[in-house]
Fold this protein.
Amino acid sequence: MEIPYTVHPREDTGLYNAKLGIWLFLASEVMLFGALFSSYILLRVGAAPGAWPHGLLNIPIGTLNTLVLITSSVTVVMAWASLKMNQLSRFKIYQSLTVLFALIFVCIKSFEYHDKFTHYEVVLKDGKSMTGHIEGSPMFWNLTKLNANKIASITFTPDAAHGAPDAKSEGTAASSAHGEPTKIATSDILKLECFGPFHNTYLAIYFTLTALHALHVIGGAIVIAYILLTAGRWWKKNPEQLTNRVEVSGLFWHFVDLVWIFLFPVLYLL
Amino acid sequence: MQPTSHANHAATHHEHEHHELGFLQKYVFSTDHKVIGVQYAITALIFLFIGYSLMAMMRWQLAYPNQPIPLVGGLLEAALGQVAAEGKMSGDLYNAFGAMHGTIMVFLGIVPLAFAAFGNFVVPLQIGAPDMTFPRVNMASYQSFFVGGVIMLVSFFIPGGAAQAGWTSYSPLATVTPTAGQTWWIIGMVFLITSSLLGAVNFIATIIQLRAPGMTWMRLPFFVWAQFVTAFLLLLAFPPLEAAAVMQLMDKVAGTSFFLPTGLLISEKVAEISGGGSPLLWQHLFWFLGHPEVYVLILPAMGIVCEVLCNNSRKPIWGYKSLVYSSFAIGFLSFIVWAHHMYLTGMGTAISTFFQTTTMIISIPSVIILTVFFISLWGGSIRFNTPMLFTLAFLPMFGIGGLTGLPLGFNFSDIHLHDTYYVIGHFHYVVAPGTIFGLFAGIYYWFPKATGRMMSEFWGKVHFWLSLIFMNAIFMPMFHQGMGGMLRRMSDGGVNYSLAQNSDALGAMSDSLIKSNVHVSHAAWALGLAQIPFIINFFVSMWRGRKVTSDNPWDATTLEWQTPTPPPHGNFAKPITVHRGPYEYSVPGQKLDFTPQNQA
């Protein structure tokens, strides 16, 4: 039994099966991310006035990551075009670049995550609160953890005062605007929490959206890498099907890119 | 000559392949759409039985509150421990069973049976395709469904038990209920959603790409159209629930507050959460799936009804295009009616008005479909065999279910009826004697194609009449109870709100309303017993049933009857070309009263 139209398009629809399949799949992905974006809107509209945080993320790094991902979309197209032009070795170069860019994207993203997990808000029992970093950059500390590990005090480097011109660049390179490290006794702390997803609903949707997107990047990169590694064999067996596979995985890759192009302004800029 | 010889070659090639396939490859890890359809059917029937059993135990608690459950009480205590102490059903256990009854029936019973099982088995045959477009994706779909089902079942036995917050899993209740069951529920749902996503992509691609030559869109049997629209609903409505499930999972395990408002009290203490979330958000996302899901449940049954009805009234369908366009209208409108489940949430009267309007509009295509079926019977020479009986019963039963939905769709009457047994009566009329009767019709109708043997007519009729009587005996009194103010989800059947215990309370329920619980429960157990003839008939007929004498025992026109019986891997013995519409019965001038679609 042969299933028709696996390689060549059906005449009246103009599509081969996998291409239709991936478009349908992407339609459902639009609904998935659409629901999360809608949730973002609903949460933001429903937030108490002034409660929605701004400037928590590092815009230059986000921009860099946007560029990385857009470039990878270009290399995907070039890889497909190379196959169309019967140039397997150029295809391999371009598609290796795609995987490389995917890795770079994920690395940068994990640095950003790490930044958030080592950035703290501390509320003292006298009512004062500040944000900053704990010496040694530990992740996910909180009061329960301090007490459980019998840590009597932490050395806390507060961020520059809120509203300062460079408040947005906090969390990156140490800047002179940062306050002096101070010692805070655990017994004085009312609440200690890093900027993880539990910190507020903005960070919750930020982490959920970007993590889901990162999973898509990783999944897409694995598929593209797999096709790349088996390309030589497929090229000999059925070059047209290989080209189709590259096209289909490329469509998915463009979608992943497109999601990020929406994510970036929504989460970083607005 | 070319294609024929090619087909012969392919056919011999297949036989060759067939002999080499081991049991595992042929029946367990099969990529054949028919085997996957049967796998879905059997698994779904088992889940329907499990879902029924949960309810049968709950009905004991409703009829005889806080008395040990006979027969299975001890077993429950041994398996689940404290929640079923002394064989009695605790409130927690009642809640868990209630939540899982809904979940299992909808996501593991009806949808897999109506969409995946029938769709898989019948759609490729009816459009003249050798298989689904993506056979391995199809297999993965079943496996994902299976894993999801296992996760749901295992969750009963974890400490704290299964999810307890209803099949709708409203937050914050679902989030703060102290059991990991909800987390299991979410993970199970993610597998089920993945399964239906893979299935939906496959169905749509198959119907678009693999129609046989000559099978134009308007020659598709209505069953295929119904599955096509259903697949789109699954494809587009499930992802928002997946998004919601991910967020609820984050709330449960990562401490976020997507659905948890600021100042949330848990056990009279302010919860230590960031707050700022919205409980309404969950409801919106859930019902964005939930309402299209209703049509996922009903459309495949309507498709089956159309096939059986035309075949047994020996008439073409009256208003084929109306049917097709109505199902599209339903599909589209079902995405903009969801908030009629939320009139009482305080989302605002303006929004309610919008959704009330769309809800009334969506009843129009449903009525058109039902009307088309009724008119198609007019002047037919009807054969009253078992599939036809179930089909004929579907019409008024779905009618009752649909019409009783109108008072729920108006927000002013919904205020009174919301969350009462009236709602339960309404949607069970749609799904139980509605959809399930349609599915039974389908099982009796396509059984000979799948097995080469007929099911017993006598026992089929016994099964039908008993089911019809007891279905109505269960769900009709619920309208009465609901209008009398009996709320759903009360684990004692409302005894604490009875006049007997609160003689001076305003709105307390009369004895007759409470007593109805007993009658309903008896009818529910009787309905279970009424399925025994079906189960025995099903298995006995598989090996002992009367053998079919032709590939087309019902004298049907559609393509699934033009294959060998049972159809081999690859389906058609030779390439098939379609020359006519799907329901050419009793065409004047023809020798026979049916003209198969592939007849030139």
Remarks:
- The longest strand of chain B covers residues 265-266.
- Chain B has 19 helices and two strands.
